[in-house]
Amino acid sequence: MITRLTLVNFKAFRRLGLPLGPLTLLTGLNSSGKSSVLQALALLRQSVDNGAQGLLLNGELVELGSARDVLHDDFGPADDLSDVDDPAVGFLVDAGKPFRFVGFYDPEEPDEDVMRMWVGGGTRPFDAAPFQYLHADRITPAVTYPRSRQVAIDRGFLGVRGEHTINFLRHFGEREVPDGPLRHPGASSPQLRDQTVAWMQELCPGVNLQADAIEGTEFVRLSYGFGGTAGINATRRRRPTNVGFGLTYALPIVVACLTATPGSLILLENPEAHLHPKGQSRMAALICAAAATGAQMVVETHSDHVLNGVRVAVKQGALQPEHAVVHFFRGNGSGTEVISPSIDKDGMLAQWPEGFFDEWENSLDQLLD
Ligand SMILES: Nc1ncnc2c1ncn2[C@@H]1O[C@H](COP(=O)(O)OP(=O)(O)O)[C@@H](O)[C@H]1O
Ligand SMILES: [Mg+2]
């Protein structure tokens, strides 16, 4: 597990040291650097996947532009990461031991999208262990989804928009969710297909889903059933385009969590998107269950229901308090400061900084005024 990530000269950060836990919530104002943390991890993964030949700024996981785009505007020396004085972006990854990655900026080639990279200590945190990264912008209801054997089946990757989730479910639907916190007690079996349905029913009671190949094409189809018409024998299946948006949007998050294994690294942006408040807190419970299973979850969220869902999971003993790490990003005029309120065993936060999920109270004050 990665216990600390330090970014040097990367995008919004001159320097940022961030402790990470089994579950890390990144919260805070817009454009304060939350996604940059996920992007840094994905960038390293993408570069290592590509043979660690260089820092690969544009690829399957992230498209960050050129060296000029990622180098912090007011960059300074990365001297504790490399003894070379050239301008550079640097990443220090603590995972049992330090792993260093430095991407050198070549002033002659500012528009290059591969930066010369130096790696110190190896690449282990980004080697083959299961990895998912779901962007804020995910699949929407569609008539068909791609069917790629290489991505969904050989690599088990859901796609950054979750676009391979349907094919993944079709192929691995009978795989069992191991006994433990992820297994939904109300599901009709431990199989991934039924477990996914059970968790989706937390969002929409009575819903059922099915993933099928469309023979003779490179596409798969998702269909939903509701209440009495649900199940294999359902006569009335509905195509996703005729079903609420939020269900399809949440499906990749549910599958990413249910397939989490010890050693997985799972990066999620806005798992709450398009879900009703109770659905958001149930998503938090599922994310906590994935973390309790031994996966490392790093989650960007704007949802107080996700935050509170995590607090409740801690209070109920589903996740140890020190395993839930919360960071609040906010601008302080000259950059971003990060405040990290700890959660105690009762789910209470040690501090409540101004601007940190306090809008409910602000509005209430005005209403009662
Ligand atoms: N090269 C750079 N130098 C300085 N700041 C940058 C650079 N690239 C991006 N930023 C800043 O990073 C912020 C965007 O970060 P991002 O991680 O997308 O935020 P969030 O996810 O919190 O909305 C913006 O404030 C932008 O100005
Ligand atoms: Mg963001």
TrEMBL record:
**ATPase AAA-type core domain: which residues?**
236-308
InterPro entries the UniProt entry points to: ATPase_AAA_core, Bact_Antivir_Def_Nuclease, DUF3696, P-loop_NTPase, P-loop_UCP034888
Chain ranges of the DUF3696 domain = 320-367
Its recorded name reads: ATPase
